[in-house]
Amino acid sequence: SAVISQKPSRDICQRGTSLTIQCQVDSQVTMMFWYRQQPGQSLTLIATANQGSEATYESGFVIDKFPISRPNLTFSTLTVSNMSPEDSSIYLCSVQSRDQQETQYFGPGTRLLVL
Amino acid sequence: QKEVEQDPGPLSVPEGAIVSLNCTYSNSAFQYFMWYRQYSRKGPELLMYTYSSGNKEDGRFTAQVDKSSKYISLFIRDSQPSDSATYLCAMGSSGGYQKVTFGTGTKLQVIP
């Protein structure tokens, strides 16, 4: 299994500002994912980030709002830009399992509250 | 209609009870099925993974898949207070990585 850490674990931000969330993995992985988890809703995939290529965004998510970096095989960042209260959520990064490619390991999440 | 439906609960049971958690799905392309457990303020952790219809057992946990009915279940035997968490079903359409679709999660509370 992979050990994943995220920073910050939580934050309270003002409307209009931006927050960058970091995701660090203890081993090299090809595919990393960013999800949003809102209360009472399922995990929603924001984008898939492969090292060395542009992130692939899901419908409803755009690069200007959620820019992603993937500088190497163990690290990625997600920025939530020009935040509004609707962006309040838990943001999770995950990585693909090497043994079972359909499964993923998740980080602990970043709890974001936008005022 | 959502691709994956899961009763949000909460489900409250006494310690030692058998728990049944269920999901239904509409997409016939789903071929592999997973259950994740998520404790409060933690990320989801993989509990069970299965690729075929039938039962798969791991300790106190049994995952059941009925592709003909598009219905999956997770059974927890001899439930413990430490099983109190939110359980998410998840499924995907083919081998290798494809987009995974998650249920909304069922919150379980096991009362001592």
What is the topological layout?
The complex is a heterodimer of chains A (115) and B (112).
Chain A: E1 4-7, E2 10-13, E3 19-25, E4 31-37, E5 44-50, E6 56-57, E7 68-72, E8 75-80, E9 89-96, E10 104-106, E11 110-114
Parallel strand pairs in A: 2-11
Antiparallel strand pairs in A: 1-3, 3-8, 4-5, 4-9, 5-6, 7-8, 9-10, 9-11
Chain B: E1 4-6, E2 11-14, E3 19-25, E4 32-38, E5 45-50, E6 54-58, E7 61-66, E8 71-76, E9 85-92, E10 101-102, E11 106-111
Parallel strand pairs in B: 2-11
Antiparallel strand pairs in B: 1-3, 3-8, 4-5, 4-9, 6-7, 7-8, 9-10, 9-11
DSSP, total strands of chain A:
11
Regions with little confidence, pLDDT below 50 for 5+ residues of chain A: none
* Spans of at least 5 consecutive residues with low confidence of chain B: none
What's the quaternary structure here? Answer: heterodimer
The two chains with the largest interface, and their residue counts, are: A-B, 23 and 26 residues
CA-based shape of chain B = globular
Strand residues, percent of chain A: over 45%
Whole-angstrom Rg of chain B: 13 Å
Kindly, what is the distance between the CA atoms of the first and last residues of chain A, rounded to a whole number of angstroms? Answer: 36 Å
